[in-house]
């Protein structure tokens, strides 16, 4: 996927017939093919010219204005109704599909979280998460699953607090990373014909659309581990500073290109793993198959 990031305050985006151009101090800093651009992310203090806005509408490219803390202040998204919208709604009305899908998402999320705690040297994983995962298959209502999710999240936060100096210091950078992760999934879902507004685990979300928020659950621990490791390189007390935006984006793109082991796809980049999970979601709704979540290698 090709994304354009506007990071430098006072920089702006223009377009001609073929390319977008990032301009700073009246000089073109870089050019990007319109044909291969799938989303544009503009940080606070960056703007877009009329030619760029016209190209975004003409080619139906997602545009997000984002703050350093990850809060999305405005978006332009394609307005057409995706192909699978009605089918997604039908599947969500099927209780068996709904519960099974939520089980898969939560199993992936919290199984992968045990691997993050393991990598951080936390010794109480069995009591913190593994015992809770054993309870999960017996929960058969949306309310019970939501309650379980909240309780497990609280345990996870407490465990993180015992191995990190201050979890709160990482929150702004985590929110920014989650916003970029959600954006990656949004573009993949749209290109696959899925409606990002039809979620199952998340019916309404702040700062994200429901379906990307669903599918990103098993990937959150991967992003969290990355932030815990990399945040000191581009943040001040966990929050991104303007001078480090470009460094953050470079590191993010490196993360997306990182090779990981996917249980079903084999050795792939993290971005390809996201694409595989979107395809898996399409298979689940079109062929009524059980959704298989992304799981980190044991």
UniProtKB/TrEMBL annotation:
Keywords: Antiviral defense, DNA-binding, Endonuclease, Hydrolase, Magnesium, Manganese, Metal-binding, Nuclease. It comes from the Bacteria. GO terms for molecular function: DNA binding; endonuclease activity; hydrolase activity; metal ion binding. InterPro entries: Cas1 (IPR050646), CRISPR-assoc_Cas1 (IPR002729), CRISPR-assoc_Cas1_C (IPR042206), CRISPR-assoc_Cas1_N (IPR042211). One of its GO terms (biological process) is defense response to virus. Homodimer, forms a heterotetramer with a Cas2 homodimer. This is CRISPR-associated protein Cas1.
């Amino acid at each position: 996927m090709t994304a354009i990031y506007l990071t430098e305050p006072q920089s702006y985006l223009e377009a001609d017939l073929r390319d977008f151009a990032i301009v700073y101090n009246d000089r073109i800093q870089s050019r990007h093919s319109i044909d291969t651009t799938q989303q544009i992310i503009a940080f606070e203090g960056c703007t877009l010219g009329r030619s760029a806005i016209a190209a975004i509408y003409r080619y139906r490219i997602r545009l997000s204005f984002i703050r350093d803390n990850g809060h999305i202040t405005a978006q332009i998204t394609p307005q057409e109704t995706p192909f699978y919208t009605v089918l997604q709604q039908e599947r969500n009305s099927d209780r068996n599909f709904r519960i099974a899908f939520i089980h898969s998402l939560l199993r992936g999320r919290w199984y992968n979280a045990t691997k993050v705690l393991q990598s951080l040297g936390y010794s109480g994983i069995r009591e913190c998460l593994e015992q809770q995962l054993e309870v999960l298959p017996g929960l058969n209502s949306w309310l019970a699953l939501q309650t379980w999710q909240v309780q497990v999240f609280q345990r996870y936060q407490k465990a993180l607090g015992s191995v990190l100096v201050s979890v709160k210091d990482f929150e702004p950078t985590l929110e920014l990373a989650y916003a970029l992760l959600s954006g990656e999934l949004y573009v993949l879902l749209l290109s696959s014909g899925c409606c990002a507004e039809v979620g199952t685990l998340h019916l309404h979300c702040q700062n994200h659309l429901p379906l990307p928020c669903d599918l990103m659950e098993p990937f959150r621990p991967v992003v969290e581990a990355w932030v815990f490791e990399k945040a000191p390189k581009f943040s001040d007390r966990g929050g991104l500073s303007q001078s480090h935006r470009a460094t953050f984006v470079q590191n993010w793109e490196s993360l997306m290109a990182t090779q990981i082991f996917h249980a079903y796809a084999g050795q792939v980049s993290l971005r390809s793993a996201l694409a595989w999970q979107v395809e898996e979601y399409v298979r689940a709704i079109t062929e009524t198959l059980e959704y298989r979540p992304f799981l980190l290698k044991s």
